[in-house]
Write a structure and sequence with these properties.
eight-stranded mixed beta sheet, 9 helices
Length: 258
């Protein structure tokens, strides 16, 4: 009996150690960062948000309508600029590097990224007739949060989730994730406060966001606002290889339903 009790104690200690490791590693897992690439032909601006100094890539700033883009948790936004430049010639495009990403300073967190998105929106809204939002993966959580606090022309969500907490709970099913997680990015909870038309782009073979979590988000969008498209054959990280991907976004922004 003593051996059994002792073994149970060891297993409990090991389990608690793994849970503690997951808790302290979660920021590194959610915000791995991205390099500060500097493609030569493109320009950037700086936006102050609290103590952070954000690097924002900008295309076609003279255009009337604007698109504010929030990338995935490891996305190099500089690599997206050539495709965005071609896809949206009549629209200003702003790509926000998260804190500690791509030349931005500061420490990322859910609250910080939402505050940064608001500061960036407020800066660009002064010089444009309207602002649409586009988020990919982690960026969908930022975009949805921003759309609940600012007037938005349209909202585009690429490979989105219901919440980071729910996705993590499935991935780390052995751990009490909902007790451990600090940044949940609960888009389902926030979606009822979004008033803009919403386009959801789904990758058929998304290996990072299980389809059930995208379907849960879709179900939270009112019928009158909801539009969705599935990229057949697409995975979480290769949608840029599909010609129809940005064409679908451009047509939605121009008023054509997908």
């Amino acid at each position: 009996m003593k051996i059994i009790v002792g073994l149970a104690g060891v297993l409990a200690a090991v389990y608690c150690a793994f849970c503690a490791l997951l808790y302290f590693m979660q920021d590194r897992l959610l915000y791995p960062g991205a390099t500060d690439s500097n493609p030569e032909k493109f320009n950037s601006i700086r936006v102050q948000s609290g103590a952070a100094d954000l690097k924002i890539w900008v295309l076609h700033p003279e255009a009337g309508p604007a698109l504010l883009y929030f990338g995935g948790n490891g996305e190099d936004l500089g690599a997206e600029l050539p495709d965005f430049d071609t896809a949206f010639p009549g629209r200003a495009v702003y790509c926000m590097n998260y804190r500690s990403y791509g030349g931005s300073t500061g420490v990322p967190s859910e609250a910080a990224l939402i505050a940064d998105a608001q500061a960036t929106y407020d800066r660009i809204a002064k010089t444009h007739t309207s602002v649409a939002l586009m988020g990919r993966s982690l960026g969908t959580g930022v975009a949805v949060a921003l759309a609940t606090t600012r007037p938005v022309e349209k909202l585009i969500l690429v490979t989105p989730f219901d919440s980071v907490a729910n996705v993590a709970a499935e991935r780390y099913s052995w751990a009490p994730v909902h007790w451990l997680i600090k940044d949940s990015f609960d888009s389902v909870k926030r979606m009822p406060h979004v008033r803009a038309p919403v386009l959801v782009i789904v990758a058929e073979h998304d290996e990072s966001i299980p389809l059930a979590h995208t379907k849960a988000l879709l179900a939270s969008i009112p019928d009158a606002q909801r539009h969705s498209v599935m990229i057949r054959g697409g995975t979480h990280n290769d949608l840029g290889d599909y010609q129809q991907y940005l064409a679908i976004v451009r047509e939605f922004l121009q008023g054509s339903p997908p």
